[in-house]
Amino acid sequence: MEKTKTTSEILSAKRKLNLKWTDIAQTIERSESWTATALLGQATLSTEEAEKVGTLLELSNEAVESLTVVPYRGTTVQMPPTDPLIYRFYEILLVYGPAIKELIHEKFGDGIMSAIDYEMDIQKLEDPKGDRVLVTLNGKFLPYKKW
Where in the sequence is the active site (predicted)? Predict the structure, then answer.
C-alpha cells in the first residue's frame, strides 16, 4: 500500500475513534512528535509497533505492513510549501536561518545539526495575550570531518 493511502486510513481511523497523537504514542511507547511523524509516512515502525498501531486504529493488513517500509522522506510537501502553518516554518528559516547558522557555528564550530539523531517537541503555553506555541528542535551536533 502506498504511504499516502496508509496516512489517509490512519487519519480517518484517528478521527473515527476520537484519538489524539499522544494516545497512539502511548500504545507504542514513543513520543507524540515521533509517532505523528511516523504515522504521517516519514519514519519507520518496527513490526511490533506497527501491529500495535494497527490493532488500536483497526487498520488493514496492508496499512500495517506499509508502516514498516522505509519511506522516501521529505517528499510529502511541495516546495515552497503552500499550507499556511508549514509555510511559516519555511518563512522562519528564510528570515532567521542565517542567524541560526551563525550562532550554531559560533557555539559549536563548523558542522550541522543532525536530523537523524534528533528529537522534537511541541508544547502549548497558555498566555492571557493568546496561547503560544513552543517548538523544541533538539539535534546532535555533527562537526565536519577532515581527512
Answer: 88, 91, 114
